[in-house]
Amino acid sequence: MALNMDGEERIEAPIAKVWEALNDPEVLKASIPGCQSLEKTADNELAAVVVLKVGPIKATFNGAVTLSNLNPPNGYTISGEGKGGIAGFAKGGADVTLVEDGPDATILKYTANADVGGKIAQLGSRLIESTSKKLAGQFFSTFGEKVGSA
């Protein structure tokens, strides 16, 4: 089951600082809802463990996150795939674009997509869609707060 979402977040920080944070595993880990661990395994690859609750199903996903289409400091594509045992799988990604908004602020725009399968996919599209949108919104707002206040 595939979903698409987009949005934008104004971050009170210069574009270079936002770009740096987008490539910082600690900042990403703190911003990803339910992220238990996020470790760099190669230049553009990270290993992640994320615990998510979708409706009545709580699952631990083990997966990989890849950064591609790197265009510093203007954006990149972040994509990930995780397996959650009997709960199923989740994969998705986002194209992230940064645009300067004066010298001290940045507009972060994203177009995200998600695909879930297995037991989770049986929960119904409305629940999965609302959960996905909530998680994407949480990620970008938390990221914005962390970078803007640092």
Automatic annotation (TrEMBL):
It comes from the Bacteria. Pfam families: COXG. SUPFAM superfamilies: Bet v1-like (SSF55961). This is Carbon monoxide dehydrogenase subunit G.
